[in-house]
Design brief:
This protein is α/β, with parallel strands linked by helices. The protein is 30% helix and 24% strand. The chain is built from six helices and seven strands. Strands 1, 2, 3, 4, 5, 6 and 7 form a seven-stranded mixed β-sheet that branches. α3 packs antiparallel against α4. The protein is globular.
Amino acid sequence: MTDQPRRRLVLASKSPARLNLLRQAGLSPEVIVSGVDEDAVTASTPADLALALAEAKASVVAAKPEVKGALVIGCDSVLDLDGEALGKPADAEEATARWKSMRGRAGTLQTGHCVWDTASERHVSAVASTVVHFGDPTDEEIAAYVASGEPLYVAGAFTLDGRSAPFIDGIEGDNGNVIGISLPLLRRLLAQLGVGITELWTPRNT
């Protein structure tokens, strides 16, 4: 009996953190950026916005003829701080103000996930939520962090796997969700489509 070939996996995101998490979990997705205008997508809550963005990215890439037959993963994250959806800051000034407003407080990182099976044209989606407790960095530390450029490229102007890690006191929930993708949620979504995540693993080199 011959093994079935592994399904082709496509990540509709340019996030290196998401790609790295998937690779660490034994997956080898191709990356095809959706080009979705994120500013044009609106929703009533931060969680709904994260989900709408993830679905938009996955659907755009899934519609491309060159991905026919593949499984497409779309993700997007926003920070819910007092009901306001905070994505990537527009500039250093906004990043600085953001951090001064977040320090000593807690917010919820909402990450929308959408998996689109282009073979069956079925798709499933859900949001993973993780509470983030911010520390109390000094103005000087915030200035140094913003000067590094990192907060301009990540939702909420922070990440757990970069220079802002010392300024995060703790989280409640899945740390991978904060970095970019919830692997447990991804497994459950794939299962809803009849795909086991172990079927997508890349064989280890022997």
